[in-house]
Amino acid sequence: MFEGASYYADKVDTTMLIIVGISVFFLIGIVAAMIYFVVRYNHKRNPVATQIKGNNLLEAIWIIIPLFIVIGMFWLGWKDFSRLRKITDYAMKIEVTGRMWKWDFKYPNGKTSDTLYVPVGKTIKLEMRSVDVNHAFFIPALRMKEDVIASRNTYMIIEPQKLGEYDIACAEYCGLNHAYMYTKLIVVPEEVFDAWLSGDSTAPSATTPTPTIARLEPKNENEYIKLISNHKNFDLLVKYACISCHTVDGSKHIGPSFAKLASGKTDVMRDGKKMTIDIDAKYLRTALLEPDYEIVEGYSPYTMPTLRGRVSENDLQAIIDLLLGKN
Fold it and tell me: Please, what are the domains in the chain?
């Protein structure tokens, strides 16, 4: 009936259906009893009210039966949750860091990502912390949520059983862009995960040759909008979800519009100081890989996820060329 991605999700759904079924049963029973009493004891049929002073058996029934029903519902939810909390044998631990307004993941070998990649059929422990305010790590497809507290470490154990991509959200209001604090849980075959985890990072390092510093030549904004919208590499802005936060028509969104690049300059805040800088390949590379280094004036830090570790050098250079207006 429901689509879950784990054994635990199926158990939660079953428990929910049982609780809803019990609730509907009592709702119908209570409404039926109310209708019966309204008809049976209306003024015409019962002009003199009958006083009932007590019935020990009836009182025992309406205390004992609901008590056992409530205990039963609690046990249904607790038994599987308790099993997960007691697991000590897991395939790996992944560090989860929450901050306004993004999630970061660090793997045992030091690799980092802003998307949670895990192998299917494995038990994973997520060790979570916040570097600012309280958050809540919520994976609807797994029916699991855990608070991520600024002053303490918390954890969650997941057992994904189905391949696929699933939403991860923050379920605790954490400020202005709380509604955009989303990422993905991507469950892949074990061999694919192992290859990704052990592969060399595609992000540039100290040994990566520095590209030629090309600069965006100032353009008419409408001309620039038309140029990038019809560019051969525009699909990369979709692939890496750039256009989820940046528009191409000049309108304001979570991040500054790409159309505002047309002037060839931008005002940014760096280390608390405002400065005007040229829009060139070096600036764009830094903005994509270290988005909090320079914040465009009027926008908030900790909003844009880094592409470091997620984008190939070819794709990165193609995005830079696209934003520079190069063919």
Answer: 7-85 (1.10.287.90), 92-198 (2.60.40.420), 221-323 (1.10.760.10)
